[in-house]
Amino acid sequence: MARPTWAGAANSSMGAMDQKNSELFRHVMSRFPTGVTVVATLLPDGTPRGLTVNAFTSVSLDPPLVLVCIDKSAVSHGQLREVGRFAVTVLSVDQAAIARQFASRPHDGRFDSVTWRTSEGGSPILDEGAAWVDCVLDRVIEAGDHSIFLARVIGAESSGQEPLLFHAGAFGGTGA
Fold first, then answer.
1. Whether the Cβ atoms of residue 117 and residue 126 lie closer than 8 Å to each other
2. Measuring CA to CA, which of 4, 15, 33, 49 is 20 to 30 A from 26?
């Protein structure tokens, strides 16, 4: 059986992908398991806002830095940028429903039926997550249809719970 390949990748421009290659790229990237997080901030009026993000990683230990990649079309993109502070909750294996809730639209109501507390830095941390980091935005780097939010970590904690993973379009755990 022939495997699909990215036709003409070596000769293609760095512009927009055609639909076939876009679908192939999405499929290829689904083969890489990722953790699942909720990135959240508090608006100036005290309203919590957040979204599900799987593009999250540590960047540096000294100073402690992390990055999250946010789709520019997400409502939270501008809010996170404007507020300049956010927390990243690493969801636990039992929180797949929360991941779905924060990935859905509309934006209002995502925090309904979710217990959370405010970090010392003033950002929402979801209860019962596997871990969390409290962040202050350092810079935003434009990258295609996403922005890379590079942030300084000002607080962190781990609960020891098993993290939620996303792989091939499904949620699961490590099985450990």
1. no
2. 49
CA 138 to chain centre: 17
Report the SS3 class of residue 80.
helix
Upstream peptide bond of 106 is cis (omega within 30 degrees of 0): yes
Question: Which residues does the chain have with pLDDT short of 70?
Answer: 1-17, 19, 29-30, 32, 105, 176
In whole angstroms, give the CA distance from residue 137 to residue 80.
9
- pLDDT given at position 96: 95
DSSP 18-43: PHHHHHHHHHHHHTS-EE-EEEEEE-
Q: Cis peptide before 33, with omega less than 30 degrees from 0?
A: no
